[in-house]
Amino acid sequence: MIDYPALAALAEVTRRGSFEAAAHALGITQPAVSQRIKTLEARVGQVLLDRGPPITPTSAGQRLVAHLDQVRLLETGLGDGIGGASKQAVLRIAVNADSLATWAVAALPEAPGLLDLVIDDQDHAETWLRSGQVSAAITAQRGPVAGCDSHGLGAMDYIAVATPEFFARHFREGVTPDTLRRAPAITFNSKDGLQDLWVRRHIGGRIALPTHLIPSSEAFAQAARLGMGWGMNPETLIRDDLRAGRLIPLLPDAALPVALYWQVARIMAPSLSPLTQAIRRKAAAALRPLPR
């Protein structure tokens, strides 16, 4: 049987980043927090925290924290008439940065509790669901992941863009394998494969692109506006720049659509129904319909 007070201590250390802050939140001493977690580790036979610095949960620790979150969220569904939940539920979901920067944040007020957002590429969010570390995710996989319900959201169009000045300087001979090998690109992080995918689809072959790594949707778009490089930006984020001519497509009619799906753990689906409805509603207003 799981020791829930010990699990609560693990969750607080994980989220607050220190034993001291966890002790303050729980209203107990720091040694008591440490002892609870040591006892839990002994009971499950695994290390649950990497003491760092920084302090981070192991994969087993994160799964246990996710379990606590789900239990608390399910308790909120019992209603006040049955006592309600003793602690406010925390909902952990995985969202890709571009959706968060454009349309998804408007749906988040419908979350039934506190939010713990995992920001990860839509092509990798499925991993968080499979490991049980999140209750729902925006993914590029139609799915569904085992034990989850999958809802089609729409397609986000990405456009390879640069400033007119950058284009004139680097692509006066055309957008070719040779010019792409020399022109700086912009990449979100090591998981971002959109630039490479666009090149393979519209230019052909794989090219080792020189690239800036800028892991922020807003800063990524701003870097393109400042002429630092070319990159794949969601059309919804740069629509005004395209209309004003501050950014131009590298190639005409060469948008790269990325299909997005909302996958939610089936056991959590009733509790997350208001959030699911809000996610689907906001996506329908912002994204292009998926092909039937």
Low-confidence stretches: none
So what's the overall shape?
A: elongated
Please give the domain count.
3
User: What is the C-level CATH assignment of the largest domain?
Assistant: Alpha Beta
Q: Identify the CATH architecture of the largest domain.
A: 3-Layer(aba) Sandwich
Return the average pLDDT rounded to an integer: 92
Number of helices: 12
Number of strands: 11
* SSE series: HHHEEHEHEHEEHHEHEHEHEEH
What is the CATH homologous superfamily assignment of the largest domain?
Periplasmic binding protein-like II
Class based on secondary structure composition and strand pairing: alpha/beta
Largest sheet: 7 strands, mixed
Helix content: 40-55%
Q: What is the end-to-end distance?
A: 47 Å
Residue share in β-strands? 15-25%
Write down the Rg. Answer: 22 Å
The name of the CATH topology of the largest domain is: D-Maltodextrin-Binding Protein, domain 2
General description of the model:
It is a single chain. The protein is an alpha/beta fold and 292 residues long. The chain has 3 domains: 4-76, Arc Repressor Mutant, subunit A, CATH 1.10.10.10; 90-153 and 259-286, D-Maltodextrin-Binding Protein, domain 2; 156-257, 3-Layer(aba) Sandwich (D-Maltodextrin-Binding Protein, domain 2). Helix content is 41%, strand content 20%. The protein has 12 helices and 11 strands. The chain has helices at 4-16, 19-26, 30-44, 59-76, 97-102, 125-130, 164-170, 177-182, 194-202, 217-225, 235-244, 273-286; strands at 49-50, 56-57, 90-95, 114-119, 136-139, 148-162, 185-187, 211-213, 231-234, 248-249, 256-265. Strands 3, 4, 5, 6, 9, 10 and 11 form a 7-stranded mixed β-sheet that branches. Strands 1-2 form a two-stranded antiparallel sheet. Strands 7-8 form a two-stranded parallel ribbon. Helix 5 links the parallel strand 3 and strand 4 (114-119). Helix 1 (4-16) crosses helix 2 (19-26) and helix 1 packs across helix 4 (59-76). The chain is elongated, with a radius of gyration of 22 Å. The mean pLDDT is 92.
